[in-house]
Amino acid sequence: MAIEQTINCTDNNRMLIDLMAITGNLDAPGGNVFFVPPPIQPIGEFARHRDLPLEQRQKRLGGNIYKLANRIAVLTPKVVWDAIITGKPYPVKAMMLHGTNPVVTGANAKEVYATLKKVEFLSVSDFF
């Protein structure tokens, strides 16, 4: 996690993978091997968002715009910020953030900070 918490994380990860490949240590015994995910239930299924009634699923913020995100029950942050500020299409009064700090990682930190101050309840679960 440490190298991915910096401003240069994308270039750093590219460089490390390039070095592994150039030196023959990518997907080789004793090197970094390709990760095969275990057969687990993905978060989209774990959350059981597909079990919601159709009427409730249609209320997902940004669901009619961001179709792929909607399929896995991901909310695009900007539509959430807008709903908190305007109360439309409905007011958002509580949030749970997991493993993220949108003030640092998202665009327009001042808007995000001001927006998060407006929710009545904010819960954050972080790795650190």
User: Level of helix content?
Assistant: 25-40%
How many DSSP H or I helices?
Answer: 7
**Secondary structural class:** mainly alpha
* N-to-C series of helices and strands: HHHHHEHHE
Mean pLDDT, as a whole number? 86
**Which spans have pLDDT < 50 for at least 5 consecutive residues?**
none
Secondary structure tally: strands: 2
Radius of gyration, CA atoms, in whole angstroms: 19 Å
User: How would you write the strand order of the largest sheet?
Assistant: 1-2
Termini, distance in Å?
10 Å
The percent range for strand residues is 5-15%
Shape: extended
Tell me about the largest β-sheet: 2 strands, parallel
Describe the structure.
The N and C termini lie close together (10 Å). The relative contact order is 0.08. The mean pLDDT is 86. The chain contains 7 helices and 2 strands. Helices cover 38% and strands 8% of the residues. It has 128 residues and is mainly alpha-helical. The chain has a two-stranded parallel ribbon with strand order 1-2. It is extended, with a radius of gyration of 19 Å.
